[in-house]
Design goal:
6 helices, AhpD-like
């Protein structure tokens, strides 16, 4: 399993404290805690959206979170492969490169 990345507070807290506050309290403190989806499902959905939107910087941390939430590496790679046909080959190739780096850092 990949090692956790520095928190948003550690990375950008001094520059954007309100954004970090909303991230911690609203996004992860409320939205991610809603009972309608498991954290595992939320992680898979979030990673898929980040792949499709080519948001590789945010993808790295969410791949780590996905593993913590029970998504297996082969499932993450299968999701990336599947999305190549929906979001485009370049987005999948970029995401696979990010995933490789995350898996190697573990």
């Amino acid at each position: 399993m990949a090692k956790p990345l520095p928190s948003a507070r550690d990375r950008i807290g001094a520059v954007a404290p309100k954004l970090v506050d909303l991230t911690e309290k609203v996004l992860f403190g409320d939205v991610w805690e809603r009972p309608g989806l498991s954290k595992r499902d939320r992680s898979l959905i979030t990673c898929a959206a980040l792949v499709a939107l080519n948001r590789t910087e945010q993808l790295r941390g969410h791949l780590v979170r996905a593993e913590t939430n029970g998504v297996k590496r082969d499932e993450l790679i299968e999701m990336i492969t599947h999305l190549a046909f929906y979001s485009g080959w370049p987005t999948a190739m970029s995401a696979a490169t990010v995933a490789k780096g995350v898996f190697e850092e573990a």
